[in-house]
Structure formats: C-alpha cells, structure tokens
Amino acid sequence: MHVINKNLDGMIGLSDSFPESQRPAVLAGRHALGLGAMNASPLKWMSTDRRESGHIRHNHTLLSYEDRVKERGEDWYYHPSKIENQPLYQYNDYGHRSQYNLKDLSTRKRIDGYGFGIAFGCSYTEGIGLATKDIYHQVLGEMMRMPVYNCGLGACGNDVSFWNFSQAMRRYKPNFVVFQLSGSGRTMLTNWDSKPPGIDLLNMRLATRATGQINSDTSSKELDLLLIMNELRLDTWRTIQIIEAVKTICDISSTPLVFWDGFQEFRTDRSFSQVIVEGIPQQNSAMQPVSADIHELMVIAPAIDKARDDAHPGPKSNQVIAERIYEKLKK
Amino acid sequence: MTEPQHTQPAKNPPTVGVDIMSEEFDNVIGRPAIVNQTIDYMNSDRQYGIRDPKTGLLQVGTIHGPGHIESCEELGPEWHYHSSKPENQPVYRYNSMGHRNAFNLKDLPDREFGIAFGCSFTEGIGLKEENIFHQKVSRDIDLPIYSCAISGASNDVSYWNFTQIMRRYKPAVVLYQLTSSTRFLMNAHAHNKIQFTFGILNDKPEFLSDMFDFAALANKLKYDTLRTQMQMQSVKTLCKVTNTKLVFLDVFNEFNSPDKLILPIFKDIGCVSLAGIERDEARDRWHSGINYHKHIADQFIEFLNNC
Q1: C or N: which end of chain A has fewer Cβ atoms within 10 Å?
Q2: ipTM summary value
Q3: Which backbone phi and psi does A204 adopt, to 5 degrees?
C-alpha cells in the first residue's frame, strides 16, 4: 500500500511504516507486511523478498530459503552464518528504505564540499534481497563519498518514481539523481472514488498486473486497462514522457542525472516494450527519435548474480551497475 | 426578408491533424501542414461546416445536442461575426512551428516573454488573436506571450511541449490551460519517427476501437485524472525550480470540486476558476467568446500579481 502524505513532502511511501498518528483509519491495523512499527524494529524479511517456497517463476518453483541453504552450502553469500550479508530492512518516516530522512539529509552539514545523491526506482533500487551496503546506490555513495537517499519502492512503476521525483526536486537540491526505470507496464492507480472525510492522504495502489490479484470486477478492468495500454504502446510512451521531464528538470537545476534501464526496454537493438499478452518484444525502439542525448545518460547492466531472494540482481551485479553509473556521473 | 450572405472561405481550410515532433522543431510538437501560413478558417473553426442542402447555408454544430445545426448567418447582421463585419473575423497566423503566433519562439529573449499551453481554447479558435485571454494578459503585463496551443490537443501534448520548451527557453511566465483528461495522445511508430495522433484521425477501425476502450477504462478507473495530476505536479516543480510564474486554467472544471481527488495536493497550486463567469460564444459558436476570455485574463493577471 502506497500513500501520498502531504505531511511528508507529498511523497509516496509505504503507508505501513507511517507512525500510528499519521496512518489513515482505513489502513490502521492493516499489516500486510507484518509490520506494526517498521521504524522501531528493522525487518529481516520483506514480503517481496521471496524466501517462501511456492513462488512460481519461469515455470519452476523457487526453493525456500532453508532449502537453498542446504543446497548451496556454507559458501553461499547468504548462508545464515554470514550475518553481515543478510538484508535488514530499515524504513524511515517516509516509508523509504533509508536510515535517514530526506529533510534531515538536505540540511546535513556537507563534508568536503559534498552533499547527497538520490536514487529512484522499484525493488531493484529498494534493494530487495540485498544488504544495504550491497545496493548499487550505496556502493555508488562510497565511490562518490556522499550519502545517497534511497527512494526506491518495491513493485512500483515509473509513475510512482516520477511522482516522488517531482516532489523531491521541488523541495531539495541533490547533487545527483539516479533514476532507475522500472517496467512500463506497471501503472499506479488510485482506489478511492472520493476522499474519505478527515483523511489527508491520497491512497495509491498498483494496478492488478503488478500485484497479481485478480479477484473483482475492478481488478478485471485494471488488467484490461494495462493490456490496452500495452497494445497501444501508451505504457512506453508514458515512460518516454517521464524520461523527458526528468531530464528537463535535472538540466534546469544543473543536477547530474543517470538513468538505469533496469528492464532494458530502451535498448535500441531489442525492444521498447514487452508485450504483456504474447510476451513478444517489439522490433524497433520508439525511443530513437527523441533519445539521442538521453541514451548518453542511460546505463544497462548484465545480471551476474542474484540476491538472497533469487529474483533480484545480486551484489556483483550491483557493483557493476554502480561502476557504470559512476562513470557516467564523472563525465 | 433579405437573403443571408454566404460566408465563403478564401480556400478550403487545411486539415490539421497528425502532428509531428521533429528535430526541426526542437522536438516540440508542431503542425508542419500550416507552417508560416495565414488563413481565414481553421478546420476546427466550425463555422466552416457542412452546407445545408435545403438553404445552401453553411451550418455549424452547436452544443444544443446531437443533430442540432443552425446557420450562423441566420443570426443576422447584428451578429458580431456576421460576414458584413470583416474587421471582426479571426485571422489565423501560424509561425514556423505551426503555432498561432506572429513571431517565433527562438526570437524571444530569455525571461522577457510568457508562454501559454493548451488546446483550441488557448489557440483561440473562433477569435481574433487580440481577444484571446493570453493576449490580453500580454498587454496588461507588457510581455509578449507565445501561444503553444494546439487545437484538439490533450494535456499530454501540452506537457510534452512544456517539457521540451522549458529545457531550451526561459520564459518568465507560464499560463497552463488544462484540457480534458479524457483526451489522450497516441504514438504511431513509423519510418523511425514518432507521429502523434488523436485516435480519431487514424483510419484503422481496430485502432479506433482500442482507443475508445482505453479512454473509457481510464475514465472508469480515474487513471485519466491521476495522469493529469502527475503532470501538474511536474509542471509546478519545473516552474518553481526555474523561478517561473505559473498559473493553471481549468477550462474543463475537472479540479474545482471539494470532493475531487486532486484536493489533498491542490492547495498550493494556483488555478483560475471559471465559476460565475457568464459564457459567450466565439465565431464558431462552440468555443468561448470575447467577454469570457476577458474575465479569464483578469483572473490570470490577479494571480500573476500575487505570485
């Protein structure tokens, strides 16, 4: 559940992490992630960290964490004996996986003339399955010698990242921005027909496709919407709009910017949008006519290894991503 | 009874449909079909309508309902836009991008001009240039205002052009007219260029059907309005970062009701309200008229003075 909270800079965060006093009544007591007080006690597992058996992916069943430990032995990076490598999910006031709050970071006394960076994206950026130290932007932070704020939200689409980008850039002045592109097929919707009285929050949810829950007429309509958007390429077109706007705002504010094409939608030799129904990528890139200068800002990275959950890029992959982003920023 | 004079256009109005974003236009969406042209009718100026087979008069569809048509000339010589009054007739001048301006964007000095985005309302279909709201604002604040409006455009089009223009130019003022959230911009990929269509201009029935299905679903799920909200937030951010004065104009009254979802984030966004303004009509009897634009301009000026 993601919520825009005007008390928290109008940014979208995980509502479950909000303090009780700021949590809307309709959400109170909803602990889908098993999180009563995320701030007080950091989590060892997230719901998107696929430790559980039974998750189907690519026609096979993922093994549970315990089974993988048995199978891979003590050498496995995530063996329980290696406590320092285990993810620990710590969320701040905004519901972002960050040890500090954005407003504190922005006023933090700058050391050696450096300020802070900020990274937007989905679970790749949130770092699901990774220890904080292994997430690409934290590796990058070490290289750049400055803290990097993690604005990643698991499962989110580019519209969520863009919303938060718009809110953050209006209020703060980061030294650089990393904008990790998620799948264009992911779409943010609102599920309140009207604003409930007494609630200052705008409730956001992901469309059915992303959540995998098709159990009502509304869910069915959401899936239809996504399919038609994909068929008409409106999803990719929306991402292109977002890319252009992000570039403009960064250009104007003289903020160095790097895109990470996490889902490789904009590789000119491949696809521009994976078609949801057939799973067949299109042949040509719609980015071409407008992307000459944007491709210069874009990095892609190979999947070298996997995180603890076997679904997200692992530490080595994140290291490569960080290095490539660093090279772009240095330019 | 005197025989009504027929309004005859000098030539057939150009069909301005598919808009192309091209490098020549700095990736701004413009209209190559009417670049550097001056014409007396636009195809969206509905006085140039279907000729009534019985009377031979040019007819215009009105807002009175489907199938209701009437002849403008039957309104008689008192009518402001009667053909006996050539001084009141709109003339459409288009610049090198196909925007309705007497000048080009690149000729305007940084921070010494304003810019208006929107659809036919801002383009001023049915109105003389001087009567469009942004031109009255221009006179009052003593700054030229560039019209980037495109008739029939959705907020997508305005937003795209806003993004491209703000990257390259530095206006002092932005007047951002919101159009209906139910309008969508499509991209048809062909010949390694992105072409933009508005659905109805495409002759493929399947494409049309999908387009309508999408628009209906988006409306049902309120995705259309949510998308507009995202654009508004981004526009506000960009203007704040660049210290550019910004006022929205909510022509379609989508965001003025207390129960609208925009409210929680709307309070800090300046938006001209149309409530209480008596509406008059432009020449095409479809778009708003001179007095309406004047009232809107007055509100804009008030907002700008308070920015």
Answers
A1: C
A2: 0.81
A3: -115, 145
What pLDDT, in 10s, does the model give residues B251-297?
887 776 555 544 444 556 667 777 778 889 898 878 899 999 999 99
Task: Please check the confidence at residue B173 and state whether its pLDDT lies above 60.
Answer: yes
Task: Please report the residues numbered 181 through 240 in chain A whose beta carbons come closer than 8 angstroms to any beta carbon of chain B.
Answer: 187-190, 192-195, 200-202, 218, 221-222, 224-225, 228-229, 231-234, 237-238
How far is CA B284 from its chain centroid?
Answer: 14
Q: Does A251 touch chain B (CB under 8 A)?
A: yes
Pairwise CB contact (< 8 Å): A221 & B234 = no
- Residue B213: which of A236, A192, A227, A217 has the closest Cα? A227
User: Phi/psi of residue B81, each to 5°?
Assistant: -105, 20
Q: Specify the 3-state DSSP secondary structure of B177.
A: strand
Q: Which residues of A225-246 are buried (b: 16+ CB within 10 A; e: fewer)?
A: bbbbbbbbbbbbbbbbbbbbbb
Please report residues of A whose CB lies closer than 8 A to that of B214: 225, 228-229, 232, 234
Contact call for residues B69 and B59 (beta carbons, < 8 A) = yes
pLDDT digits (tens, 9 = 90+) for B117-164: 999 999 999 999 999 999 999 999 999 999 999 988 889 889 989 999
